[in-house]
Amino acid sequence: MNQNQYEQELFAQRTPYLQWLKQQETTLARQYGQQLEQGALGKQIHTLPFSSCMDHMNDVGHARDHSFAEFQGDRIYLFARDAGRLSPYAKAVFAKAFLDDADVVLAYADEDYSGSLRELYGIGEADRQSGARYRGAPWFKPGFSPDTLVSFFYVGSVFAVRGDRILEVTGKYGSDISLHELVYRIFMEALGRRRQGVTCGIAHLPYTLYTNDSLADKDRTEGDGKIRLLYRAEERCKGADNDKISIVIPSKDNADVLRKCLETLVQYTDYSCYEVIVVDNGSSPEQRARISRVIETLKTKKSGLAVHYLYRERAFNFSAMCNAGARQASGAYLLFLNDDIEILGGADGGQWLDRMLAYGRKSHVGAVGAKLYYPPGQGERGCHKIQHAGITNMGIGPAHKLGGMADEGCLYHGHNTQNYDMLAVTAACMLIRRSVFDSAGGFDEDFPVAYNDVELCFRLYQMGYFNVQVNEAVLIHHESLSRGQDTLPERQRRLAGEKQKLYQKYPLLNAADPFYSPHLVQWRRDVEYNTGYLYAFDRQAEPVMRGCDRAAKKRERSLFKRAHIRDMLCEKCAPAAKLYDRLTGYCDMMFHIDNIRYGDGITDGKTTDNNTDDMVVIEGWSAVRNADNADLPRRLWLIGAESCCAYEFDIAPKLREDVAAVLEEGAGNRTKNTALSGIQVNIAISTLKPGTYGIGVVCNNKLVCDQEKYVAIPDKNTEGKV
């Protein structure tokens, strides 16, 4: 590419949301452009500005010089915050949503923010119009989330309501209610309809139809404090005699870890109406005796504490152990707790179980999860480091959100501070009503190790329940102390098999999550809620088998010969190798493979035959020293280690500003335009012959190979990957 093309691509890769926005605007223009020019759309939409969700309905009506009595039942009222602007297509999109579905009573859309390039994307404006305003920081919202609405006004700055529903709610509760209460009342009615199997009437429109004027309020999670009181009061809590919680803790050969869990549970938990059931699948005699002593000591510390120790030798099956504990439970609620959980002390830590129970009591709620931290010392600047804040079902599979992030500030609209409806929560700490657990059939014992909690949450969702991530309840999780990390090859194969089984059972939830926008990252692990725009390097690369004709064979033999000579010299004689590199230009070739991943099914945003394990992704970078890298075509080669088979792939530009910061340092440096030197090549395993392949990069008619990295392609008739 020439310099201009390079600059354009560089800007595009630094601003993924702007590229996504172009696609959306093109789609909306195609659907609504002609009607918009004719002024025929959105005439039945009446716009009402508001400044806060705390505005009273009377105030909102007066803001447009209309008395509240002039609200009409056959109109659609579009509420738009007065500190921003609507998309030209907003009225048309909302009008279509209500016209297409007579059951829709309230609809809300996504929004973004206006600011400078530096504010939004962290880049300068040297070659852009000075002072220009851009759009960024998109807020891609979840679908119908009644419990999230209780936490804060997540519908945000733009939503529309049928006039007859406004009149109905204000007639019943008064015209001085806040906007938050208006929407809350409509949501609660919709929740009742949904539980009766009727369309709920709440629509999330997946378009960015509003732009806030300033980033100043981006992290604000405003709400009417009255809503939480209404939420807790609407369904009377059961009496204390029925609020007993049975805490089921699977454990084996972990006496010291279990002791820490039980001691902190008893010492720091304010809630007192509970029993403990330890389920042991075969600890050694020594460990079994130690566990028994831990339990007896605990009983002496807390008078009246009931602790049951269920011991039975059997193969590890987390689901079976949890089910066994549930069968012995006498409480109306079940809390499944890993033995490597530690309860936090402090004035606030003891309330964790009360806060989870407040949601567990609600008739529409299925599983309730807590926010989990990594142990102290793994955080940043004194902050705790998040291990889990709910489970999102991404294209690559179920993923813990915010994992590894420092718990400071407001992370993507309160995903670390507010309580959110989520598709799934982790059974490392999961509360559920006994009646709901029994009606669901408990944990599926065909999922012995992984995804058993996700499978149960999927089942609860399909039964009509909402699973809630309660970030007010916070615990320490010494992750995977019980069974170890899933890094060994056999464990990776098992994990892949259980994930495949999960989606065979729930095909409609494959790469789908009603509480996670499809516009967010799907095909790689992400904790920051980034825009899921696909660049050229994100798409599946097509292999070209080399050496197919005489000219090609001759050219490739020359490449291989020169690369082989260089490798031989490197092994035998360093001075000769350096001289050869200077004479041939190899000294200027820089190339490194950072990572080889198996299992990311990226094929233009779709999985390969619904099997996300049929991909290999090669990542790294390459550049040429003392050269302008903007116009250097690069190709990746896979070279058969046991055969003459070789494949060539085009390398699409990928942003690697970390590489450019190192290579272009210094005023006199002649190495230029290396910011797009990244390598990401996504290859369908089925397009390659089985075998082991070396990795090389061809640039400037030179082939440089990585002597340490290899790609292993298994025979489809053999199990697993090499």
Count helical runs.
20
Structural class: alpha+beta
Overall pLDDT confidence:
87
The oligomerization state is: single chain
Low-confidence stretches: 237-241, 481-487, 602-612
Helix content: 25-40%
Strand content bin: 15-25%
| DSSP strand count | 27
Shape: globular
Main beta-sheet annotation: 10 strands, mixed
**Integer-rounded radius of gyration:** 29 Å
**End-to-end distance, in Å?**
38 Å
Give a verbal description of the structure.
- The protein is α+β, with helices and mostly antiparallel strands and 722 residues long.
- Helix content is 32%, strand content 24%.
- The chain has 20 helices and 27 strands.
- The strands form five sheets. Strands 8, 9, 10, 11, 12, 13, 14, 17, 18 and 19 form a ten-stranded mixed β-sheet that branches. Strands 1, 2, 3, 4, 5, 6 and 7 form a seven-stranded mixed β-sheet that branches. Strands 20-24-23-26-27 form a five-stranded antiparallel β-sheet, covered by helices on one side.
- Helix 10 (255-268) runs parallel beside helix 11.
- The chain starts with a helix and ends in a 9-residue tail after the last strand.
- Residues 237-241, 481-487 and 602-612 have low confidence and may be disordered.
Strand and helix map with partners:
Blueprint (H helix, E strand, L loop, with lengths): L2 H12 L1 H22 L7 E6 L6 H6 L13 E6 L2 E3 L3 H11 L5 E10 L1 H5 L12 E6 L6 H6 L6 E5 H11 L5 H17 L6 E11 L13 H9 L10 E7 L3 H14 L5 E7 L4 H17 L4 E6 L6 H11 L4 E5 L3 E3 L2 H4 L2 H9 L4 E9 L12 E3 L2 E4 L2 E4 L19 E3 L6 E5 H7 L11 H11 L3 E12 L11 H17 L38 E2 L4 H23 L1 H11 L4 E10 L16 E10 L10 E6 L5 E5 L6 H7 L14 E7 L6 E9 L2 E12 L9
Parallel strand pairs: 1-2, 4-7, 8-9, 8-11, 9-10, 13-19
Antiparallel strand pairs: 2-6, 3-7, 4-5, 4-6, 11-18, 12-19, 13-14, 13-18, 15-16, 17-19, 20-24, 21-22, 22-25, 23-24, 23-26, 26-27
Helix pairs in contact: 10-11, 18-19
